[in-house]
Design goal:
Blueprint (H helix, E strand, L loop, with lengths): L1 E4 L2 E4 L10 H5 L2 E9 L2 E2 L2 H14 L9 H12 L7 E8 L17 E8 L4 H6 L1 E7 L14 H12 L4 E6 L2 E5 L3 E6 L2 E4 L10 H12 L4 E3 L12 E6 L3 E8 L2 E2 L7 H16 L1
Parallel strand pairs: 7-8, 7-14, 11-12
Antiparallel strand pairs: 1-2, 1-6, 3-4, 3-5, 5-6, 8-9, 10-11, 10-13, 13-14, 14-15
The structure holds pyridoxal-5'-phosphate.
Length: about 280
């Protein structure tokens, strides 16, 4: 597998990362994931804007963000993935600092890593829906930054997988924020609800697309918190993400949602999403 590391394309096993990289010591870095549809990066500008925001919020200086489109297409070609679609993982840490100390120096050179992977077939989960579990949101209060420091998310996701669920959905003070790697939506009387943008959630690009598609198709969206103690009052649920796309939720822990089949509004939004990605 060929990856991109600090301005070079090289085999994965030739990548050398210093143990003094602040990414290793402090998870001092950010990441981004985007994917292609029909070979073209999807909402690339939005992903780059979000990456820039995360870098700025952590005061990491790195500007060559537009290059990632070219780099990822090169990697897809080198890894013989083309013409299939692929996802791209970008990680930028603040860089190497010796000796180890908490406060960062301003003149560090960021460590940059990019890899590409084939898109896994998710047709079964899109068609049948998935189980989720609920977990208390113990993450920090800057979830708007896509930092690599996501241990609460990896722990919650592992718990979900161990319970045969696809995703763990977080709640804070009875309010649902988002999933470990997805945004969460509920539907009641054909109105769509999702948590408002704030420091408690990541501004999901798929979330943004869903809200746009709903507006175009006259489906009302209310950006307000879904409360855990009111979950039973909703008709449908779905989760969104770059590789998760629009995945119906048919089970929350041990409770079956409705009749256990993806809901009507969820199906409609999936259809609008598919038509949209096929049209660009
Ligand atoms: C915490 C969190 N929320 C939401 C999302 C979904 O964002 P997007 O639709 O941009 O993939 C992600 C994606 O990784 C995430 O990590």
């Amino acid at each position: 597998m060929i990856v991109y590391f600090n301005e070079k394309y090289l085999p994965l096993d030739e990548v050398k990362i210093s143990p003094y990289d602040r990414g290793f010591h402090y998870a001092d870095g950010v990441y981004e994931v985007f994917r292609t549809y029909h070979g073209k990066p999807f909402r690339f500008a939005s992903h780059i804007k979000r990456l820039k925001y995360s870098l700025n919020e952590l005061n990491i200086c790195f500007n060559d963000l537009k290059e990632f489109e070219f780099i990822s297409l090169n990697l897809a070609e080198m890894n013989k993935i083309l013409p299939e679609d692929f996802s791209v993982y970008i990680q930028i840490t603040r860089g190497v600092q010796f000796p180890r100390k908490h406060n960062y120096e301003n003149n560090l050179t960021p460590t940059v890593f990019v890899s590409v992977s084939k898109i896994k077939d998710n047709s079964e989960q899109l068609d049948k829906g998935v189980k989720i579990i609920l977990e208390e949101d113990i993450r920090w209060t800057r979830c708007d930054v896509k930092s690599v420091s996501i241990l609460p998310s990896t722990l919650a996701k592992t718990k979900a997988v161990n319970q045969n669920a696809y995703e763990a959905i977080f709640h804070r003070d009875n309010k649902i924020t988002e999933g470990s790697h997805t945004n969460f939506f509920a539907v009641k009387d054909s109105v769509v609800y999702t948590a408002p943008l704030s420091n408690f959630i990541l501004e999901g690009i798929t979330r943004e697309v869903v809200i746009e598609l709903c507006a175009e198709n006259k489906i009302k969206v209310i950006e307000d918190y879904i409360r855990v103690d009111q979950l039973k009052g909703f008709d449908e649920f779905f989760i969104t993400g770059t590789t998760t796309e629009i995945t119906p939720v048919i089970r929350i822990a041990d409770s079956i949602v409705g009749n256990g089949l993806p809901g009507k509004v969820t199906r409609l939004i999936q259809k609008y999403f598919r038509e949209y990605v096929n049209s660009i």
